Amino acid sequence: MLSYAQAAGRTIDVRDVLSYYPIIDDLRRYGRPIDLDPDTLRTGLYNQHDFDKVCVPDLFAAKRSILIFFGFVTPQRVRTYEAILRAKIAEGVTVRCVARPPHDNGPIPYDDGRAALDALETMGCIVDTRKDTHEKIVIVDGEVLWFGSLNPLSHTNRTGEDGAPG
User: Fold this and answer.
1) pTM surpassing 0.85?
2) CB contact burial 28-52 (16+ within 10 A = b; e otherwise)
């Protein structure tokens, strides 16, 4: 298949593939926020400043389930998402979080990791811990997938990493 693609296919500039402009009208039609960083608009990759603007509306739209995988967790980022997670749980949406246990929470102090996971459980989230997880994934209702390098429950807005919609 690869040999055929090389022989018969055409080369497409990755900037054209990643360009956000072809879908900007769709975002307007669906009421998605479009006040995004010029680099986000140019590449279609969400940076740390734009990630919450586009992920949070998907969380608000959840009807059945929210599943969040994250390698690290901080109390500050849990507080950022607390109101939406509590509201969705009150509506009967199942919220499951999969994270590393506090003693494997990278550079984040044990007590902070424990406090963050405890806060998630207190608000009604199902919390599973896995020693080696490092995925950064958000799945809403089994239909919307956010996959990238931004971790919604730990990033500090000081990272240069981007998260790409899936």
Assistant:
1) no
2) eeeeeeeebeeebeebbbbbbebbb
